[in-house]
Amino acid sequence: MKIRSILLALTLSIGLFATSCSSNDENEGATIIPITGKWGVVKVGTNIGGVETLVDPPQNVTGCDHDYLSFKIDNTLVSGDYDSTLSPCALTTVSGTYSRPDNKLTTVINGVTTTYDIVNLTLTELKLKNGTAISVYTR
After folding, report:
1. Contact present, 11 and 18 (Cβ < 8 Å)
2. Is pLDDT above 70 for 16?
């Protein structure tokens, strides 16, 4: 009888100890969405006084692919701009670098540094805000 009581107490103790050692990490299971990849601009607009207004980007030329940002894994980027002024859907690209501290995105293109707030980042949508200006991109 004593042996059974000791085994039962030991089993209960081990069970309680095992369940009390679970992780309390708040980020457990959280997924960090990578920003790398090619993002085409699909909406632009403003957020003034909490009112967001988005429209189709005037910089996207009808009949051409969307202007884009392409973020590489080595923290370089390519900005692509389609323009039909000289020839249909002529692509002009410029290169730069980027960093992503916290919920910010900082780009350096042609020596100009710009920092954006990352408003939304999913596997298919990137929404950036710079002051009152908003840009929405999709992959």
Report:
1. no
2. no
Amino acid at the residue 11 = T
Q: Which CATH architecture has domain 37-138?
A: Beta Barrel (2.40)
Please check whether residue 40 is in contact with residue 129, taking contact to mean a CB–CB distance below 8 angstroms: no
Round to the nearest angstrom and report the end-to-end CA distance of the chain: 68
Beta strands in 33-138 (DSSP E): 37-48, 51-55, 68-71, 76-83, 90-99, 104-109, 112-121, 125-130, 133-138
- CA-nearest of 51, 39, 62 to 136 is 39
Quick check: 110 and 96 in contact, CB under 8 A? yes
Beta-strand relationship, 125-130 and 112-121: antiparallel
Number of other residues whose CB lies within 10 A of the CB of residue 81: 16
Neighbouring CB atoms inside 10 A of 3's CB total 7
Q: Is the pLDDT reported for residue 43 higher than 80?
A: yes
Task: Give the closest residue to 85 by CA, choosing from 69, 64, 66.
Answer: 64
pLDDT per position as a tens digit, 88-109: 999 999 999 999 988 999 999 9
pLDDT at 34 over 60: yes
